[in-house]
């Protein structure tokens, strides 16, 4: 029998191996480079917009499996959302990651990102999981001209 922890660990490793949205594409409305100085993880993320919707997220980066899987999951979660929904989703994810395990990630809203739920119990790893989401937030602000 596979435990939730085992299943979640496998989802993280799968997203690390098969990185959704990986590879930068031209035509982005917003872009952000983020680096975690503590561990060296980094990501360059481009937000592609059509109208008021996220048409695509393209990115490249290097770092731990949690950091890279989180960027892959972010791609899957946010493509197709309105820009306002993207901002809301980023806020919800950040709150869950900073909850120290007290707040569950809504699987219906976040899909495979539920695999990152356990990370919130390890403060040193929260920054890894949040890196691409903070890049998306900054890219969203850039796309909106803020």
Automatic annotation (TrEMBL):
Pfam families attached to this UniProt entry: NifU_N
| GO MF term set | iron ion binding; iron-sulfur cluster binding
Q: Which InterPro entries match?
A: NIF_FeS_clus_asmbl_NifU_N (IPR002871)
Q: Which domain of life is it from?
A: Bacteria
Task: Using the record's annotation, list all stretches that form the NIF system FeS cluster assembly NifU N-terminal domain.
Answer: 8-128
Which GO annotations describe the biological process of this protein? iron-sulfur cluster assembly
UniProt-recorded name of the protein = Iron-sulfur cluster assembly scaffold protein NifU
Q: Which organism is it from?
A: Arenivirga flava
């Amino acid at each position: 029998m596979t435990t939730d922890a085992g299943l979640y660990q496998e989802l993280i490793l799968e997203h690390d191996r098969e990185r959704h949205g990986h590879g930068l594409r031209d035509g982005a409305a917003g872009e952000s480079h983020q680096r975690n100085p503590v561990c060296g993880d980094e990501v360059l993320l481009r937000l592609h917009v059509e109208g008021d919707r996220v048409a695509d997220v393209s990115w490249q980066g290097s770092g731990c499996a949690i950091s890279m899987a989180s960027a892959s999951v972010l791609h899957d979660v946010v493509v197709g959302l309105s820009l306002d929904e993207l901002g809301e989703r980023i806020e919800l994810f950040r709150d869950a990651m900073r909850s120290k395990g007290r707040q569950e990630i809504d699987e219906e809203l976040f899909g495979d990102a539920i695999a990152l739920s356990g990370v919130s119990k390890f403060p040193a790893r929260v920054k890894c999981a949040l890196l691409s989401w903070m890049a998306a937030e900054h890219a969203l602000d850039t796309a909106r001209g803020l």
